[in-house]
């Protein structure tokens, strides 16, 4: 127990960057504040635009600018070099717009001095919009339209993952939670009735009900029966939504349910491997915007929920996780693979200079940094990195999978590490068994919480503006 507490304490210790050189980064971010899913189409709000721009500005200060605290070696500071940056997002109003806003903060307009050129005839031409920089964003098919989908698993079209998630609805845990919270949801019908009537006000719609009321609490000046929406009620709604979405996105005994995290893991390894194989000439900084399902399923697969229970929850708007590729050896010539290390960082909510990411150990480890080999081996236990591997794991045989080889011998290899990308059982089996016990006990505790004491403590670690701070609260301990 003492060593466990020491490991958790170490996660909060500020990192020393002495003698380190960052060679590449993969960043995965959630979108900014948006309108509600239950009133599609969802759109990025002005507050959301401000949040992603603020986050982009922070990561500029961390990785890009000439005075950056963890400057990526060789990365252009003012004028973007497109071969060094890889940005991607699904074809989704909220996610694509968030990526654009983030990039504006990462590489802002260059101004009248850098944004001009002199022609042969001595004419000086100034770039439009004060030197606004045009950075292409690659469209990814996974998650397309996800912010208009009440259930993110359906946006992935992975047949086996959908079946797996549906199995949760027939589980004893779900049925107990549904029954024990029905009165709570029914008590909110005067608030939700315009969107969710009495027959829909239940745990099955836990996330969309929370989402509707969370958005309303941020943006609506007039809410029906608003006196029912106390801070305690909103906290309970969030906790139940955390429980609901985590169980739909991850299950330790059925890894295909976490398909979003498996594909993300493959993308991270592939992108950083490109940084290595190009000796740092390309793909120095990869940025992807995606939905919360990818966060939660990756948290489960990487055993982050065993490091801190906050990882059970749905990440707030503009949350981000970064994978830093770094070395303590001489950065030139480009270091050998055995001299490369990886660090994982996460921040819940909008990242800023006053609220920065924290490093956490991956895969049940006890160190905040790991070798490149250990990192790829760990990721490849659950990563799915090819169309063939995805089709095989998902059991899909139509559309893009119609011509895929899904025979038992087919599969995908990841980067240069050679690990299998097929789905696997969760690592840390002994700890996993203990977590299962804790999950069962936690369900019982939550049932008691709602029947006897419907009140819970809210923690805030972000220094957002007051309205965003009140409604973008930190990840909650999952009820499951």
UniProtKB/TrEMBL annotation:
Domain of life the protein comes from: Eukaryota
Signal peptide (from-to): 1-18
Residues spanning the membrane: 430-452
SUPFAM superfamilies reported for this sequence: Phosphoglycerate mutase-like
Composition skew (Basic and acidic residues), residue ranges: 467-480
Keywords: Membrane, Signal, Transmembrane, Transmembrane helix
Cited Gene3D superfamilies: Phosphoglycerate mutase-like
Matching CDD domains: HP_HAP_like
InterPro entries assigned to the protein according to its UniProt record, in alphabetical order: His_Pase_clade-2, His_PPase_superfam, Histidine_acid_phosphatase
Molecular function terms, GO-annotated: phosphatase activity
Pfam families linked to this entry: His_Phos_2
GTP-binding keyword on record: no
Region listing for Disordered, in residue ranges: 460-480
PANTHER family the UniProt entry points to: ACID PHOSPHATASE-RELATED (PTHR11567), PHOSPHOGLYCERATE MUTASE-LIKE PROTEIN (PTHR11567:SF142)
Family membership: Belongs to the histidine acid phosphatase family.
Protein name listed in UniProt: Histidine acid phosphatase
Source species of the chain: Ramalina farinacea
């Amino acid at each position: 127990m003492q060593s466990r507490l020491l490991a958790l304490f170490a996660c909060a210790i500020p990192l020393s960057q002495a003698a380190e050189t960052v060679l590449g980064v993969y960043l995965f971010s959630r979108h900014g504040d948006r309108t509600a899913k239950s009133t599609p189409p969802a759109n990025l709000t002005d507050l959301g635009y401000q949040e992603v721009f603020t986050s982009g500005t922070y990561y500029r200060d961390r990785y890009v600018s000439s005075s950056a605290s963890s400057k990526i070696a060789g990365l252009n500071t003012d004028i973007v070099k497109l071969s060094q940056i890889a940005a991607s997002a699904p074809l989704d109003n909220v996610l694509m717009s968030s990526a654009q806003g983030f990039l504006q903060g990462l590489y802002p307009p260059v101004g009248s001095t850098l944004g001009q050129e002199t022609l042969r005839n001595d004419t000086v031409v100034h770039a439009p919009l004060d030197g606004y920089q045009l950075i292409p964003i690659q469209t990814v098919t996974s998650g397309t339209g996800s912010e208009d989908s009440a259930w993110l698993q359906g946006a992935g079209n992975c047949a086996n993952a959908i079946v797996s998630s549906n199995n949760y609805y027939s589980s004893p845990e779900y049925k107990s939670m549904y029954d024990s919270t029905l009165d709570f949801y029914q008590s909110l019908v005067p608030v939700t009735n315009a969107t969710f009537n009495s027959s829909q006000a239940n745990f099955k719609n836990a996330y969309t009900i929370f989402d509707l009321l969370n958005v309303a609490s941020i943006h609506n000046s007039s809410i029906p029966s608003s006196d029912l929406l106390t801070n305690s009620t909103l906290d309970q709604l969030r906790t139940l939504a955390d429980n609901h979405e985590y169980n739909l996105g991850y299950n330790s005994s059925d890894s295909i349910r976490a398909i979003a995290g498996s594909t993300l893991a493959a993308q991270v390894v592939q992108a950083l491997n490109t940084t290595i194989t190009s000796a740092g000439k390309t793909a120095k900084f990869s940025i992807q915007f995606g939905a919360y399902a990818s966060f939660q399923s990756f948290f489960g697969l990487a055993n982050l929920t065993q490091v801190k229970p906050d990882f059970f929850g749905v990440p707030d708007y503009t949350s981000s996780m970064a994978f830093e590729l770094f070395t303590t050896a001489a950065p030139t010539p480009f270091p050998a693979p055995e001299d490369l290390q990886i660090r994982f960082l996460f921040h819940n909510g909008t990242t800023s200079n006053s609220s920065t990411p924290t490093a956490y150990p991956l895969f049940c480890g006890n160190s905040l940094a790991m070798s490149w080999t250990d990192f790829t081996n760990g990721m490849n236990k659950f990563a799915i990195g090819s169309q063939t591997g995805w089709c095989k794991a998902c059991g899909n045989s139509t559309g893009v999978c119609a011509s895929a080889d899904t025979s038992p011998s087919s599969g995908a290899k990841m980067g240069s590490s050679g690990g299998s990308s097929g789905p696997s059982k969760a690592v840390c089996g002994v700890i996993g068994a203990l977590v299962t016990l804790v999950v069962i006990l936690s369900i019982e505790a939550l049932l008691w919480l709602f029947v006897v004491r419907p009140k819970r403590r809210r923690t805030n670690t972000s220094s957002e503006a007051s309205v965003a701070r009140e409604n973008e609260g930190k990840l909650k301990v999952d009820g499951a």
